Amino acid sequence: MAFPTQVRLVEVGPRDGLQNEAEPIATATKLELIDRLGAAGLTHIEAASFVSPKWVPQMADHREVMSGLKRRPGVVYSALTPNLKGLEAALECGVEEVAVFGAASEAFSRKNINCSVAESLERFAPVLARAQEAGVRVRGYVSCVLGCPYEGEIAPAKVAEVSKALLEMGCYEISLGDTIGIGTPLKAKRMLEAVSREVPMEKLAAHFHDTYGQAIANLYAVLEEGVAVIDSSVAGLGGCPYAKGASGNVASEDVVYLLNGLGIESGIDLDKLADTGSWITQTIGRPNRAKVGVALAAK
Ligand SMILES: CC(C)(COP(=O)([O-])OP(=O)([O-])OC[C@H]1O[C@@H](n2cnc3c(N)ncnc32)[C@H](O)[C@@H]1OP(=O)([O-])[O-])[C@@H](O)C(=O)NCCC(=O)NCCSC(=O)C[C@@](C)(O)CC(=O)[O-]
ipTM score of the complex? Predict the structure, then answer.
């Protein structure tokens, strides 16, 4: 397979990047972050998460964030909705795309959304039906595709099975999450091989965390296989509340630098993105985990 000529980045910093922050972050800061990301050329920004505030307190202002967006033309602002309650609230705030999130690991599914994998799919079915009725697209996440913090190894066949179920239910895209950033390139390729037998490559996205420093290598491997959608987080912000020790997503700045080097079009202004990474990390008092961001800031 050849590299794609164009890649779409899904910026998950405002949601995945911030959800694990213990100190409340002002809604205005979240809105400014989202706006800066749009100004840097991101066309798909995951802005909020309509989950229980008891489970993820940092996302408790989901209504204010979703309703307060300064919407830029051509930019999709999406939100996580694990159930109908979340979806209805998101619809009231004018959401145009949502995501359901399942897992390839039973243990992770229980810790994250308090139900088995099969039960989660049952819960998602009415979410998809209602979203379809409202004309809202639904993305499907599968967590733990390259390993689970509780179960260890995850069979590629299980990832393929859950991905296929989400696709058949009506998800337009399946995002494959290396939740704990434990994968390596060969493993990523093997997993992708199994999944792409059930889900067309053009409907797959890579959502890799960088805990073990392998995310860029893993992305190179799956780009080579034809994956053309990458989830990333500005400044490498993030971690998962239900995956102890997991560090942030791969940094958007590092991904754009990789894509530029490969001659793959992303439409993103790297300097503006790097400025946004410097700004948000200074604002919330976090280290900037984007190597490219740090290098550019030091110039
Ligand atoms: C899914 C539930 C809600 C089930 O939680 P539950 O306790 O099984 O659900 P429930 O229906 O029994 O409701 C319990 C309480 O939550 C409320 N509730 C119920 N639903 C909602 C909602 N939508 N919005 C707001 N509140 C809600 C509900 O009203 C009730 O309130 P109470 O009566 O106790 O006051 C819970 O487990 C939850 O919120 N989990 C959040 C998990 C999460 O956000 N994890 C992080 C995101 S996933 C991720 O990061 C991975 C990903 C996507 O990035 C990919 C990767 O890297 O792998």
Answer: 0.97
